[in-house]
Amino acid sequence: MARAKRVSANRGSALWFHKQSSWVGPSSFSTTVATSYSLAVDTAGTSTVQVVDMMGNSVATPYANGHITLSLTESSIYIVSANATVATAGVTLPVGYIGQ
Length: 100
Known about the structure:
- The protein has one helix and seven strands, in the order E-E-E-E-E-E-E-H.
- With 100 residues, the protein is mainly β.
- It has one domain (2-88): Immunoglobulin-like (Sandwich), CATH 2.60.40.
- A five-stranded antiparallel beta sheet has the order 1-2-7-4-5. Strands 3-6 form a two-stranded antiparallel sheet.
- It starts with a strand and ends in a 12-residue tail after the last helix.
- The relative contact order is 0.32.
């Protein structure tokens, strides 16, 4: 089973891709197993959001029609949007998460 995972807090979302059949042991982590994913980051329109990789590198990335298209791998990326309502809609927070 392959799925994109998403959790959100405040103005951002953390995303990554997991393909269970690829994980056969401790050396199974891969940055090449990927899937395309469209994320709603704002209302209709165009602008940019910050995409932050797992090492903290940040890039202003354009979006169109309120969505950004991403290539998700098993490495987490973080999307920071100015529109918190859209960025966090439809997200289930992890059990035990307490937002601040």
